[in-house]
Amino acid sequence: MQNKLFLKAADICELLEVKQTSAYEIIGNLNKELEEQVLSELAYEVGERYFAIQRTEEGYDYSFYDEDFRLMDGGVYENDEIFIEEAAEELLEDEGWTGECIRGDYDQLMEKVEEMDEIVMAAIQKSQANINH
Q: 9-16 vs 20-37: helix axis angle to the nearest 10?
């Protein structure tokens, strides 16, 4: 049983000296932990544009951004039966974003998007203030 990547219930019984029902319980708990650790958000840079996707209860929420981090398009991809990487690949292909995808930091991308949103909102408020005067 040296350096096995996957263990069967019988292996766990032998290794931990537990009954088979306990081994299945251990496997169930480990699987739950793994599910919680599955990637839930991704960001990509494609050329000079950006793509973000995150897991939600409905499936995957995704957004396409231009080079200035302004929202171009987005939606919900409702097939949560596939991994987030597969959903991202399919969405990018559907949108015609076929260039090199560079994996980025999701949180950093969202920070840049928020900064751009604040700049745009400030500009809108300033122009409305000028109109009202």
A: 110
